[in-house]
Amino acid sequence: MVLAPAKQERGRCNVSRAAVLQGIGAVVPPRVVDNDELSRSLDTNDQWIRTRTGIGQRHWTDAGTTTGDLAAEAGQRALKSAGVDSVDMVILATSTGNQVMPATAPEVAETLGLGRVAAHDVSAACAGFIYALSSAAGALAIGGAERVLVVGADVWSTRLNPDDRSTAIIFGDGAGAAVLRAGDADEPGALLGFELGSDGSGRELAQVAGGGSRELSAGRPPRPDDAYLTMQGKEMFTHAVNRMAESSQRLLDRIGWGVEDVTWCAAHQANVRIINTIADVLELPRERMLVHLDRVGNTSAASIPLALTDAAGAGRLQAGDGVLMTAFGGGLSWGSTAVRWPAMDVLSI
Ligand code: UT7
C-alpha cells in the first residue's frame, strides 16, 4: 500500500517535517558460535578474544539464509513494534546484499508484502544504519515519504576467511530495523540531527577487494582471497575511536546536548575497548555505553539497531531517555544521530 503524501503548498518544498522513530526490532540467526568453537580451528582462545574484544559469542547463519531473509524478519518486528503494516519506502543498509545487482531492499519489501514501494540499498559498511536513517529523514522532510522502514543487515559469516583470526573472531550476522514516520521536531522520537563523514583514502583498511569494477576492469583472473573481508585491525581501531568520538561531539554541539543529556550511547559494536575509549574521550560514564557485542559480536550495519533493541527489550532503555548513536566502518565512513526515546513496545531479540 502506498501512503498519501503530505499536502504541500503549491510550488514550495515542504522541508519542515522531522523523522520520528515509531518502532524498532531486530533478529540474529539461531546458530551460536562461541569462542571455544573458533579456537578449535584457529590459533586463538576464549580468553584472548574476551580480553581484547569483549566478544563471547556470535551468531552465524546456516546455509541458505540470506541477508534479505534476516532483514525481512527484523523489518517485520519493527513494523509490529510500530503497530503498522505499511510503509512507503524501504531503505536497507548492507554491504553483504543477496547479490551484486539488484539491490536487496526491493526483495525485502516484497517479502514483507509492502507492495510497490520505493526501495533501495545504502552501502556504508558499519556506518550504514546511520546513513540510512539520514536518507530516510531526508525523504520524510521533503514529503517523499510518510513512513519509512530502515533496516541494517549483514551476513559477514559468508565472506570471512576461515583462516584469518583477525576477522573470523569479530564478525557476527544479524539485522535490525526501525520504522520512521513524518512528524514534528519537538516530539519524542524525533531524530535531532545528523553528523556524517567519510575518508576514501582509507578504503583498503577494511575491504572486500574483489567483485567490483576495480577488479573486473584490471583484466586479470580474480583471486579467490579477494572475495573475503580483510581488515587492518590496529588502524581501524584508532580511526574508530577518533572518528566516532569527534562525530559524536560535533553532533552534541550542534543539537545543544551536553553529556548529561546522554542517558545511553549506542556506539558501533566492534570492540568493547573502542566503546570504552569513546566514553572516556567524551567524558561519559562507561555505564552509559550500551554493550551488546558480548553476545552477538560485530554485526556491522545491524549493530546499532540490535544494541538498541536489546536494551529496550530488556527495559533498560526507556521512554524519555536521551540516546546518542554513533557508528564507524569501512569506506572509511562514519556518522552520528540522537533521539529522545519514545514510548513503544519492543519485542526482545
Ligand atoms: O566494524 C568496523 C570497524 N572495525 C573495527 O573497528 C575493528 C577494530 N580493531 C580491533 O578490534 C582489533 O584491532 C582486533 C580485535 C582486530 C585485533 O586486536 P589487537 O589488540 O589490535 O591485536 P593486534 O593485531 O595488535 O595483535 C596483538 C597480538 C599479536 O601478537 P604479538 O605480535 O603481540 O605476539 C597478534 O598476533 O595478538 C595476536 N593476535 C591474536 N591472538 C589470539 C591477533 N589476533 C589474535 C587472535 N587470537 N584472534
From TrEMBL:
Pfam families, sorted: ACP_syn_III (PF08545), ACP_syn_III_C (PF08541)
Alphabetical UniProt keywords: Acyltransferase, Cytoplasm, Fatty acid biosynthesis, Fatty acid metabolism, Lipid biosynthesis, Lipid metabolism, Multifunctional enzyme, Transferase
InterPro entries: ACP_syn_III_C (IPR013747), ACP_syn_III_N (IPR013751), FabH (IPR004655), Thiolase-like (IPR016039)
Catalytic activity: malonyl-[ACP] + acetyl-CoA + H(+) = 3-oxobutanoyl-[ACP] + CO2 + CoA
Protein EC: 2.3.1.180
GO cellular component term, pick one: cytoplasm
Top-level EC class as recorded in UniProt: transferase
Residues annotated as signal peptide: none
Domain Beta-ketoacyl-[acyl-carrier-protein] synthase III N-terminal: 121-200
Pathway assigned to this chain's UniProt record: Lipid metabolism; fatty acid biosynthesis
Keyword Lyase: no
Family per similarity comment: Belongs to the thiolase-like superfamily. FabH family.
Described purpose of this protein according to its UniProt entry: Catalyzes the condensation reaction of fatty acid synthesis by the addition to an acyl acceptor of two carbons from malonyl-ACP. Catalyzes the first condensation reaction which initiates fatty acid synthesis and may therefore play a role in governing the total rate of fatty acid production. Possesses both acetoacetyl-ACP synthase and acetyl transacylase activities. Its substrate specificity determines the biosynthesis of branched-chain and/or straight-chain of fatty acids.
Subunit (UniProt): Homodimer.
Name under which the protein is recorded: Beta-ketoacyl-[acyl-carrier-protein] synthase III
Organism this protein belongs to: Actinomadura rubteroloni
Gene name tied to this protein: fabH_1
